[in-house]
Amino acid sequence: MLVVLGIVLVAFILFVTELFPVDVTALIVLVLLMVLGPWTKVSPTDGLSGFSNEATITVLAMLILSESVRRTGAVQLLGHRVAGLVGDSQFKQVLATVGLAGSVSGFINDTPVVALLVPFASDLAHRGNTSPSKLMIPLSYAAMLGGTLTLIGTSTNLLASGLAQQLLGRSLGIFQFTPVGVVVLVTGALYLVFVAPRLLPERVRPRETLLEEYEVEEYLAELVAPETSPLVGTPISDIPAEAGFGGEVKEVLREDAVLSPFSDELVEPNDHFLISASRPDLTSLIEEEALNPLPTVGREPAVTEEPARSDDAESVLIEVVVPTDSALIGETIETSTILQRYDATLVALQRGDVRLPRVHEAEFTVGDLLLLQLPADELERVAETRDLIVAREIPREDYRYDKIPVAVAILAAVVGSAALGLLEIQVAALAGVVGMVLSGTLAPTELYEGVDWTVIFLLAGVIPLGIAMENTGTAALLGALVATTAQYLPTVAVLGVFYVATVILTNIVSNNATVALMVPVAINAAREIGTNPLAFLLAVMFAASAAFMSPVGYQTNLFVYRPGGYRFTDFARVGILLQLILAVVTPITIAVYFGL
Fold it and tell me: Domain RCK C-terminal spans what residues (predicted)?
């Protein structure tokens, strides 16, 4: 037990600190469990069982199905049609956003749903003279709530089902907990429609698009003067006037010397300028060939050559956000090769109100907004990487609208056959994948592009931790300790304790990691008390999808962080009250429907 508790502690510390990506942490845990097998009671067969677990296989197949539906453009088409119905009523806009995200997320993984609906919500706000800040958090929270409707709504549910099979001898049905999910979604939706807009500030002014909002904020940029620059020979102090921009020259670096922005020294070729300016000003400087972006690591300096023009068909400027688990986090432009991979040049960096050092010395962190210059034909690849989130909708002309009926029919067949018990969920999902490929809805070369391999390896890595906790009696010990609260509290209140504990944990570590750590403890606590283990498992599962208090608690929160112009505290401002309401509603609903 001590060895397993030690591994749990290591896992918790690594998940919280994110010293390694979560999937790497899961593999570290997996290796420790197998290497220390004599004490953890985990054989190599047990350790590798996570890769063949029905939850892992089902998540893999469902992610591919979600990618198939995404490529048809069905969700986006639905969003645009809804936009034409709601007009300029903020109430109708919020209602449409919450209703669409909540309902669709029950059948398509909530993360791609939010990624697809962010541009829809921005456009909806723009057309209706509403601040996008009023729509973005409700969009993310509604998708999380909608994911609780069915077994396939989120990978969290599928992992919980896999643990139920392992610990209770039976997996969850696709609609088994839908009645509870409906109550949770309706409760949350009422809050998001009637209360949340009153609590959300207008961080982005009405009628401003996403990029227009970014344009009025200042970036920090490092640019270099080419030999052909019209600024060469101009006094440094006259740069703002000569260049015609409203930004500020912070300093000028010339070899090993640092020159004042008020210096009378003349600009020389290869001078480096540290500039604070808006996006239009930076774009103008580059387009007018006054200054070039510094070359990305691995490229040869090209200060004597004509820079690529951002309005050229071969080169564009885009803004991207650094997401959680990005390989860029902790790296600098000098040490990372991510941007080089896409032939992208970092023009400037924005990090809220934080004052940054030199751009090329700053370590990237979650939420950083980067202004990149890159070839237009690399846009698609950048849009698909998980290391960057493009902060504007990338026009896609390859949507397969003619395949929408086929994709919807296949998805309905998967859900229907699993719900009626005709096929096991993992078999139905794999059959659906085959159907998508054979029907031409998804090309064979695209088969794995929609798979979040981080989630797959995370699932495969943490499932054996539950086996170790069960085999060594660690889960029973922890469950017994928590079960002592039943001496002072009614059973439904103990259920609430587990819900609250899981909520706190899921706002700190990933939702899937939280389920893996808490489900074995909850089931054993229920057995110790002599109550329904399924109810306790569901309390943990629902709580793990309730990361409402911070932007880093759930990936969808990070998707809306920048488009809504939010501050970190805005999520807590809206989320804490919602969290408290659901902490009462969810355990009571589970207790009433499933019994204790």
Answer: 208-291, 305-388
- Helix spans in 147-290 (H): 155-168, 178-194, 196-199, 210-215, 239-243, 279-287
Q: Find out whether 148 and 545 touch, Cβ atoms under 8 Å.
A: yes
Position 205 scores a pLDDT of 63
Q: What is d(CA 385, CA 494) in angstroms, rounded to the nearest whole number?
A: 42
Nearest one of 527, 519, 535 to 591, comparing CA atoms: 535
Q: Is residue 15 part of a domain?
A: no
In a domain, 37, yes or no: no
Q: Which tokens in the block code for residue 351?
A: 């990090």
157 residue type, one letter: N
Give the per-residue pLDDT at 305: 35
Number of domains in the chain: 1
Residue 238: per-residue pLDDT: 78
Q: Per residue in 114-173, pLDDT tens?
A: 766 776 777 677 666 788 888 889 999 999 999 899 887 887 888 888 888 888 888 888
Instruction: For residue 297, tell me if it sits in a domain.
Output: yes
Q: What is the rounded CA–CA span in Å between residue 486 and residue 444?
A: 54
Residues 457-468: tens digit of each pLDDT: 877 887 788 778
Domain holding 358: CATH number? 3.30.70.1450
Phi/psi at 129 (5° precision) = 55, 40
How many Å apart are CA 33 and CA 29, to the nearest integer?
A: 6
| Torsion angle of C-alpha atoms 61, 67, 69, 75, degrees rounded to 10 | 130
CA distance 202 to 117: 20
Q: Which residue is associated with the tokens 């990029």?
A: 211
pTM above 0.90, yes or no: no
> For residue 226, what are the domain limits?
215-390
Helix (H) or strand (E) holding 28: helix 22-35
Per residue in 13-69, pLDDT tens? 887 676 787 678 888 989 999 999 889 888 888 888 888 877 778 778 877 887 787
DSSP, collapsed to helix, strand or coil, labels residue 318 as strand
**The pLDDT of residue 301:** 38
Long-range contacts of 187-190 (CB under 8 A, 24+ apart): 187/581, 187/582, 187/585, 188/102, 188/141, 188/142, 188/145, 188/578, 188/582, 189/98, 189/99, 189/102, 189/142, 189/145
How does the average pLDDT of the chain come out, rounded?
A: 78
Check whether 104 has a pLDDT greater than 90.
no
**225 pLDDT more than 60:** yes
Confidence of residue 194 (pLDDT cuts 50, 70, 90): very high
3-state secondary structure of 13: helix
Q: Which residues contact 358 (CB under 8 A, 6 or more apart)?
A: 222, 274
Give the model's pLDDT for residue 206: 61
Distance CA 184, CA 592 (A): 13
Q: Does the residue 539 lie in any domain?
A: no
- Neighbour-count burial of 10, counting CB atoms closer than 10 A to its CB (0-12 exposed, 13-18 middle, 19+ buried): middle
Question: Are the beta carbons of 502 and 518 closer than 8 angstroms?
Answer: yes
Amino acid at 487: Q
DSSP-derived letter for residue 305 is: S
Residue 183 has pLDDT above 90, yes or no: yes
Task: State the Cα–Cα distance between residues 557 and 111, nearest whole angstrom.
Answer: 10
